[in-house]
Request: fold
Amino acid sequence: MKQLEPAFGKLDLFSLHRQHCVSLLPSGVFLKDLTPLLSSRSLADIIIVDHSPLENANYLQNILPVTQYIGESEDVTLLMVRDCLDHLIHAPDCRISLRSVDFRSP
Reply:
């Protein structure tokens, strides 16, 4: 996330982790809870960049799926995210634009 901030200073960037999830016991599945974000923004403006679609099952239309970022020099995940966000930032509803993104192919 920190690597993306200079390029996208006009975006609100949030990191949501396990503590932002709701547990579906006894299955052991965790779902991200965007409720705190929805008090000040619309789902049309929220893009979830994540390598774990299952945790975002409630917001499938908002997911920009990525492979896990490992941070090594040959890892191009953040470059691909940056290019995609550069396109999506201008969309009136990111969910519509995300339907056409084939992000897993290089």
